Each structure stands twice: as C-alpha cells, then as structure tokens.
Amino acid sequence: MTPSMIALLVVVGIALLIAIVYMNHVVENNKLEKARLKVELNDRIRRCSEVNETFPGQLMTPGLKLLLTRLELNATQRLLLLQKSSTALKAQVAELNGLIAKGESIPVNNPPNPVLTEAKAKDVRFLLETLHGQITRAAKDGFLPTNEAKQWIKEIRHLLVVLHIEFFNNLGKLALQKNQPAQARLAFERAVQYLRKQPVPAMYNAQIKDFEAQLARANAQVLNALEPSTGEVNELTEGLKTDEADADWKKKAIYD
Fold it and tell me: Any stretches that span the bilayer, and where are they (predicted)?
C-alpha cells in the first residue's frame, strides 16, 4: 500500500468519524428539542385548561371560552404529533373539536366567584396575565391572526378594569354592611381614581357616576358619625355651665 493510499484512508477515516460525531450530535439535539417541546406544550395545555376551568363565571363569556378551547386544542394537536400513539391525547382532541364545533353556543359552566378580597383579585389578575401570554405566543406561532390577537389583548385589558370595578364595589359595600363608612369611602375613592386613569375613561362614565354616588353616601355617613348626638351636646353644655359656675365662684371668692 502506497503512502498516498494510506493518507487517503486516514482522511476518509477522519471524515467518517466527524460525520458519525455530527450525526450523533444532530440526533441528540433532536431528542432534546423534542423533549423541550413536549414540556412546553404540556405547560401550555395546563395553563389554558386552568384559565378555562377556574376563571370566574361572572367574567367568562362564550367568546372567551371558545378562544381558550381553541388555544388548548392547538397545543394538544401539536403534542399529538410528537406522541402519535397516545389514546388520551386523541380523545382530548376529539372532545375539544366537539366543543369548538358548537361555536358561540359552547357551554359556559364556570360558577360565579365574587371578588371580595385583594388576594382573590390578584388570583384573577394572574389568570388574565396567563391568558395574555398564551395569546401572544399563539400569535407568534402563527396560530392566531395578528388582528384577532390584538382584539383579544384589548379585551383582556377591559376585563382587568371590570375586575377592579367588581373588587372596589364589593369592598365598599361590604364595609358599609359592617358599619365602616370610612373604609367604604376609601374603596369608592380608589375606584373613581382608577377609572379616571384609564386610557379612555369615557368608556366607564356610568361606573364612575355610580361610584361617585356611593362615595357621596359613604362620606355623608362618615360626617354624621363625627357629629355629636343630642345627649352628648347636652352633657357638653352642662359641663361648660358647671365650669363657668366654678369660675364665677372662684372670682367671687377672690374679690370678696
């Protein structure tokens, strides 16, 4: 075997080794990407399902329910492509398709869940933030058209305002029921300030007027609570008279 042939075999061997290493690298990367995508899609399915099932019924609409079901279906179908033999995913896809086929007649079974505490308001706000993230991601993936995504993001902002309206309204009324007009006044004041700071406050003129009326009533109760009662006035008057009488007696004793 000539030196040139030996050199050629060495070169071919090195090339084959590089090719094998490269192919192994590609296969490993594909495995890692597939595993990463599975985790991501399962997370998206979980998030969509959580919002779909736990969002307060008084804020849920058929349109929103339909959107969440579409987002969940998209992620489930993509996951099924990675796990083609999964009977559970096939059944889930069939169920979601059946719901979507109902259109705006899709059942909305979320029970009303009044927002009575700040902790509850934060929980609902977190669900809205989760939904915002899912819409943004779906638009980035090309599943949702840009215009539709923008409309839904606008709707989420509106729902956030509606959430605050319910929270402040419940907070104020609860304080009044507990005979705490000062706390009620604070809640209604915060509501008016929040609504006036919105980009288009005119959208909420009716709610602003309603909160202003409740604020006036709560303020009147606070002022009434500060006014002394008739009995207190009489006691105060009698106390002043006694003080005056004592003062006159002392003056008379001094001058006498």
Answer: 6-27
